[in-house]
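Sequence in, structure out.
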Amino acid sequence: MDNITELIPFGHEQAISRKRLCTISGWPDRVIRRAIAIANEHGEIILNTDRGYFRYLDESDDPFFEHYIARERRRSKMIMRKIRKMEKSRTEELEFV
């Protein structure tokens, strides 16, 4: 199987666990996670819940989509905050050299 999207069903009610994805694909967990990230970077809408991964089907999946987007925005804000603090610390360190 070359394409992760072929393994992931449509709709939150059909979600598949990452463990099951590893079993049926033969890929390690890290490869599964990276393949999903790459697919999403290319415009796929692969979401996850406590039940597993699924592809966006219709408006019944909107709450999961909104939750995913909000979580990703929080993550990106935390990453930017960390980067700014690291850059500031580096600048302060260079001032003392």
